[in-house]
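REVIEWER CHECKLIST
Item 1: Sequence provided? yes
Item 2: Single chain? yes
Item 3: Sequence as submitted:
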Amino acid sequence: MVVMNKYLFIILTLCWTVINCSGITGPEPEFETHLDKVSLSVDDEDYAHLVNESFSNYYIDADLTIGDRSYDVKVRNHGNASRRLYKKSLRVKFEDDNLYNGHSKEMVISSQMRDATYMRYILSLEMFRSAGFHISDCEQVVLGINNENKGIYLLLEPLDAFFLKRRNLPDGNLYGASNNKGFFTFENGFAARSGYNKKTNENGNYEDLENLIYLVDTASDSAFVKNIGSILDVENTIDYYTISILINNIDGIVNNFHIFNNPETGKFEFIPWDLDNTFGGIITENTLDLYADSYAGGSKLFKRLLNIPRFKKVYIEKFDYYMNNVFTEDFCLSVITPLQEMIRHDYQNDPVRTILANDLNESVESLLYFVRERRNELESQMRAWNTVY
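Item 4: Structure as written out by the authors:
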């Protein structure tokens, strides 16, 4: 695995900007890919804005082609901290009368800059899928802008009203944790509106989420145990937490996760999102321990659940199950081996991986090494944990 310091990032960012800008004087010849190709055609001046104004949310007009379908779309840069990276992610907005594949208003073209395998996100999704979670559609593609090969990206389905509709889920309130403030507490002046973005029914009413936070924040242990199951899918929540700990979803404990108030059950449930910093993908020395205390502030919801013996017992049981059946090298290989062969040809032509001198086989081995080391680390923590009931 290549680990880069901030100075190398600056140099590569400049190189990537030059490469990007050098391609805006005219169309390049068509290039062949083995993966599906996503082609964007944009005006030179608009493209320069996209390249140079990383933190702008200004949409530019573009023509997008995927397979034999063409769309008139709006495009802007996507992400938060990842906008500092030299390979940018994009958010694409489709016209109401020409939705993507007839069912999606928006899509994300995710750069996966930090992932030299382009597989961590998909592997994380598959682990959540195995636990029964609703997950986004995700596909490895090659992005071309004005006929210039920009490398391998992930084409991701956002979590929104269209996501719910495609899965025959009712029209409930969907919130996305943001700003690293999804703490499930009102302490220190935190407010629901500062820690969560409402993705559906955007009427400014956060009452249902505020009721959940209030219960987590103020209830005695006995009241918490008695009432939490009436407004929160506790099993789903513990599943989300357990898998997040295993895959080191360090950016998904107080950030990025989505929580859906399902009108059919009357309970909130977690939906995973933005999983690019899993499996050691984030540039940090931090890893999540069993309590996720190593991440600033932690989550009051998860901490309260784990401090209740009956819920802690469920967590330990789920930890044992997923360690033995999901977070294993065999499970990982079943997912990544076919993906590795699918991307091999296009990986060799990926300009970013060429600049970084990444080797696909070595990058996959680094991912598997992380899994082996992570298992050893967490097994050691669990042995030291108090598991007597």
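Item 5: Key structural point noted by reviewer: Residues 182 and 254 are 4 Å apart (CA to CA).
Item 6: Recommendation: ____
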